[in-house]
Design a protein that fits this description.
The protein is of the alpha/beta class. The protein contains 8 helices and 8 strands, in the order E-H-E-H-H-H-E-H-E-E-H-E-E-H-E-H. It has a single domain, classed as Formyl transferase, N-terminal domain (Rossmann fold, 3-Layer(aba) Sandwich). The mean pLDDT is about 95.
Length: about 260
C-alpha cells in the first residue's frame, strides 16, 4: 500500500457486521469524529455476524456466555432493536449508501465496489475472508482494525485471549489486508490498559472506540502519503479461534467477567 499525497478527500468503503453491542461503538465514534474535509464515506456493507443464521449465532452466544449472561445480553439486544439502534441506522442518519450482498467475494459485488471507485476498503469485524478480487478492488487496497497485538493474537476475540494470557494492555492494530488472515503490514497501533480483574464487555467497548480514533489517524496518513507500514515477523505468529466453554471457565476463574 503506497499512498500519494492528495488535496482531495480519501474515498472509503466500509465492510462490517451487524453488531449492536461492540462494533457499533466503532462507528459511533468514527462518524462523530472523522474529518469530512479529508475523508469521504462512499458506502457501507453490513453482513450477518459469523455468516450464520440468527439461531446459530444465538446457540454460539449461549455456549459462550452461559444462561445468566446470555439472558442479560438478549435483553440488551431486544432493547437495541426496540430503540432502532443499529449500524445501518447510524449510516442512514449520515446519508451513507448501503451496499448489500450475500457475499463480499461475489463477482457482482466486487464489480459494484469497483464502480464506486474507493481509495480504501475498511474492514471492521467483517465476518468473511476477503479474496484476491476484493483485496485489489480499491486504489490503495484494504485495511483492517484488530483489537490485538499482531502477529501474536491473530484470529477471533483477541481481547478475550489477551486477558486470559495476563496481558497488561490490549494492542489495537490497523493493518493492511493480504490473502493470509491478520498477516499484512501494520499501519498503526494504540495500547489500551487492562485491569487485573476485567470486564470483557468494558474492554471490548473501549477498544472499539479507541480503534475508531486510530483508524482516523491512519486514514489521514494514507491520504497525506506519509504512512509507514511495518512488516510482521510471522515466526512469532499465533492464531486463536472462538473460545470454548472450558476457556471461558478459566477466564472467570482468573476473576474476569464477560458482562
Amino acid at each position: 500500500m503506497v499512498a500519494t499525497p492528495t488535496s482531495d478527500r480519501l474515498r472509503l468503503l466500509f465492510v462490517t457486521q451487524d453488531d449492536p453491542f461492540y462494533v457499533i461503538r466503532f462507528f459511533e465514534v468514527f462518524f462523530a469524529e472523522y474529518p469530512r474535509d479529508e475523508l469521504e464515506i462512499a458506502g457501507i456493507t453490513i453482513a450477518r455476524a459469523f455468516k450464520e443464521s440468527k439461531v446459530a449465532v444465538a446457540r454460539r452466544m449461549f455456549r459462550f456466555y452461559g444462561a445468566r449472561d446470555f439472558a442479560r445480553l438478549a435483553a440488551r439486544y431486544a432493547g437495541a432493536r426496540i430503540r432502532g439502534r443499529s449500524i445501518a441506522a447510524l449510516a442512514a442518519r449520515e446519508e451513507i449508501a448501503l451496499l448489500e450482498t450475500e457475499s463480499v467475494n461475489d463477482p457482482d459485488y466486487v464489480r459494484r465496489v469497483r464502480d464506486i471507485e474507493p481509495d480504501v476498503i475498511v474492514s471492521v469485524a467483517a465476518p468473511e475472508i476477503f479474496k484476491d478480487a476484493l483485496l485489489g478492488a480499491a486504489r490503495l487496497g484494504c485495511v483492517n482494525i484488530h483489537s490485538g497485538r499482531l502477529p501474536k493474537y491473530r484470529g477471533m476475540m483477541p481481547v478475550f485471549w489477551q486477558l486470559l494470557s495476563g496481558e497488561r494492555t490490549a494492542v489495537v492494530t490497523v493493518h493492511e489486508m493480504v490473502a493470509e488472515v491478520d498477516a499484512g503490514r501494520v499501519l498503526g497501533t494504540r495500547e489500551y490498559p487492562l485491569r487485573t480483574q476485567e470486564s470483557l464487555d468494558r474492554a471490548m467497548t473501549d477498544t472499539k472506540r479507541e480503534g475508531a480514533r486510530l483508524m482516523i489517524d491512519v486514514l489521514r496518513q494514507l491520504r497525506r502519503g506519509d504512512a509507514r507500514p511495518e512488516p510482521l515477523e510471522m515466526r512469532e505468529a499465533s492464531y486463536f479461534s472462538f473460545p470454548s466453554p472450558a476457556k471461558v471457565a478459566e477466564f472467570r476463574a482468573q476473576g474476569h467477567r464477560l458482562l
